[in-house]
């Protein structure tokens, strides 16, 4: 896969030049609760990750793509496919847009649509799922707009800042 192109953005494979953005993202403690991260990552470890990011999703069960604006190719976020399970034909999806200035511009929606189409068409999955914190109204709206349905609530699922948070389970079945 070279790129997946949308109207305003394109998705591409990770490049070594993404190291600084990846370093900032992976070390942002506000995102650790959704990524199960518990300690900071060094640039060395992230460089190794980037050097191995070409590995096939069938091998490593995950794929991270960079979300870039078409107009200037600026990197605005990442979208991940994770827990790929070919036997049960499903995969999880997560997305992050870095800056507040780039949020609510449709980039996440477009990236989610491109990624879901890719997963259904090229990975032949039956369903795509996501876990979304009860408090994350922006993501809830994004995923519901994309056709994901709430399948349940995982009570006290995430422990963060001394408190438990519940998480909604969303899924999109291949139409």
Could you walk me through the main structural features you see in this protein, from its secondary elements to its overall organization?
Helix 1 crosses helix 3. Helices cover 29% and strands 37% of the residues. The chain has helices at 19-26, 32-35, 43-51, 57-60, 107-122, 137-145; strands at residues 3-5, 9-13, 63-69, 75-85, 90-97, 127-133, 149-160, 163-173. The protein is an alpha+beta fold. The protein has an 8-stranded mixed beta sheet.
Proportion of residues in β-strands: 35-45%
Query: Low-confidence runs (pLDDT<50, min 5 residues)?
Result: none
Order of helices and strands: EEHHHHEEEHEHEE
Mean pLDDT: 89
Q: What is the helical fraction, as a range of percent?
A: 25-40%
Tell me the strand order in the biggest sheet: 1-2-3-4-5-6-8-7
């Amino acid at each position: 896969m070279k790129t997946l192109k949308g109207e305003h953005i394109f998705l591409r494979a990770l490049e070594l030049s993404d190291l600084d953005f990846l370093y900032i993202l992976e070390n942002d403690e506000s995102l650790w609760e959704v990524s199960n991260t518990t300690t900071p990552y060094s640039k060395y470890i992230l460089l190794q990750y980037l050097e191995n990011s070409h590995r096939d999703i069938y091998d490593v069960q995950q794929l991270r793509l960079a979300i870039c604006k078409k107009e200037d190719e600026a990197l605005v976020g990442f979208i991940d496919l994770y827990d790929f399970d070919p036997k049960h034909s499903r995969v999880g999806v997560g997305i992050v847009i870095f800056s507040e200035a780039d949020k609510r511009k449709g980039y996440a929606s477009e990236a989610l649509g491109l990624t879901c189409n890719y997963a259904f068409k090229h990975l032949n999955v039956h369903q795509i799922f996501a876990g979304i914190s009860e408090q994350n109204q922006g993501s809830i709206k994004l995923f519901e707009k994309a056709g994901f349905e709430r399948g349940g609530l995982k009570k006290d699922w995430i422990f963060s800042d001394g408190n438990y948070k519940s998480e909604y389970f969303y899924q999109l079945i291949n139409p």
